[in-house]
Amino acid sequence: MIGSYRNLLWVIPVGVLATSPLWKGYVGDFLKPRGGYDEVAERAYQEQSQDFVMDDVVIAFTTEGVQTWTIKAKQAQTGETDREIQMTDVDALYHKKGESPISIISKKGKYHMDDQHLTLIDDVVIVKPLQYEEMYSDLLHYYDTNKMLISPGDVEIKGPKFNLKAGRMDYDVSSGAYDFNNRVEVVL
Asked: Transmembrane segments in this chain: where (predicted)?
């Protein structure tokens, strides 16, 4: 008895195949896409960028699950590409484990997502509150990959017991080491 059911199993595919001229047209019409294919619209959709403009923005960056940057901006928008964020009236905090945060203020800023590069422009002020130090510059770059703050122009650092004026400054955030180029003037 079991063998006869198994032998009848081949009847189902043969029946579907034999009756296909009756139902094939209806199924084909049902599965046909509606509307026409617009090649120009498809190309425009694929090339579309993700542009935005936002007010009162807070951006937080983390490294290995630990928050390293908190950036507040009065306004943020996409830059030349959708992988660049342009900001105005920037107020940033750099959090380092076991130390007080470093505060950075500037009029403008850019963040490049692909290479994790933060650029702060116009009246940049860095405040290290526990050391009572303030640094002034017109341009500052932060590279997250190697944790470096770089000011290619003139810098001025004021502390409780010194004033320093120099050209280019490289500051290694992870070790706290400074490197100054060009003429360095220190008043104690």
From this structure: none
Amino acid letter at 149? L
Among left, alpha and beta (phi > 0; psi -120 to 50; other), residue 96 is beta
Cα pseudo-dihedral 73, 77, 80, 84, rounded to 10: 60
Structure tokens at 149: 């703050």
Instruction: Give the pLDDT of the chain (188 residues) as one tens digit per residue.
Output: 556 777 777 888 888 889 988 888 888 888 887 777 777 777 776 666 667 788 898 988 887 888 888 999 999 888 888 788 899 999 999 887 777 888 999 999 999 888 889 999 999 999 987 788 899 999 999 988 888 889 998 899 998 888 889 888 898 888 888 888 888 888 88
Other CB atoms within a 10 A radius of the CB of residue 171 amount to 22
The first and second tokens of residue 12, run together, are: 């189902």
CA 112 to chain centre: 6
The whole model's pTM is what? 0.68
What residue segments make up the domains of the chain, in order of their start?
Answer: 2-47, 53-187
